Amino acid sequence: MQTKQNHYIQNINKTLDYIDQKLDEPFTLDDLAEVSNFSKYHFHRIFSGMIKESPFEYILRLRLEKAASFLINHPQKNITEIATECGFSDISIFSRNFKKHFKNSPSLFRKEHIQNSNLSQIQSNQPQIKGVTSPYFCSATNTLKWTTEMEMIKNLEVKTFPNMTVAYNRNFGPYEGNTDLYQKHREELFAWAASKDLLSYKHFNYLILYHDNPKVALNTSQRMSLCVTIPPDTKTDGKIGKLEIQGGKYLLCECELSAADFPTIWEWIYGEWFPKNNFVPDDKPYFELYPEQPKSSIFKVNFCIPIKAI
Questions:
Q1: pLDDT single digits (tens) 2-51
Q2: What residues have CB less than 8 Å from 113, skipping those under 6 apart?
Q3: Are 308 and 280 contacting, i.e. CB atoms less than 8 angstroms apart?
Q4: pLDDT per position as a tens digit, 170-198
Q5: How far is CA 290 from CA 120, 169, 263, 302, in A?
Q6: What is the dihedral of CA 180, 152, 223, 59, to 10 degrees?
Q7: pTM for this structure?
Q8: What phi and psi, each to the nearest 5 degrees, are found at residue 144?
């Protein structure tokens, strides 16, 4: 039975997904209220009460964080081009808001990140992080793969993924240090999937979807969705939402590692693999896919990052 609270979460989640899909387009309060199924006279207050930001504060922050990610990941793009792609029609308004949010101008933000990244690479002499790689073509899978000295990495390749429909249970803020909340959200998701007889779905997988770049998003505002793959025609309800993860070209990094090793892998992918290959992160969420339950303290995890050629 759907509770009143879950009804509100469901409608706000629909609005958040709508904003994500059209972030570079103009919004009106009427548009957002219609998506949410709330009266425009009450939508603003409901959204602000649940998200702790007004609708347009939320949209502005996401646009600025998207622009910051572009400044980091696409150094070949000029600032005006990035501002336009992130929904800003006026470069002066973009620059003013960017400086207010990040306490730095877009150009200095980019310059300092490049300097810090270069310094980090110079100072990183640990072999387990350096992880020298060598690319090769695998005729069995018809994909580009890499060998690596990092023992925790079992397979590293560029792979084309299909579109995936997922049901999700979303949280604002990371689960780090809050295992009980993570378990609660995971159990809610699996209980819902079991009630819909989805556990036997032939493409059933469990994954954690990251909507925001942790290098630019505030820790408390990072959005994480615990997801299970579902048939496209599945109906969701209550706090369990539904979205489609876009297919395309991904870096697939299959690992066996401890919980303490997760930051090392992410640091290595972004700090070592990307700078040395002809790809940049694409502007889509990335995710961790868990093919099986962890055994003792060792996790089997597939790190999946959308990419595109430089």
A1: 566 788 999 999 999 999 999 999 999 999 999 999 998 899 999 999 99
A2: 71, 72, 215
A3: yes
A4: 998 888 778 899 999 999 999 999 999 99
A5: 30, 16, 16, 6
A6: 170
A7: 0.86
A8: -90, 125
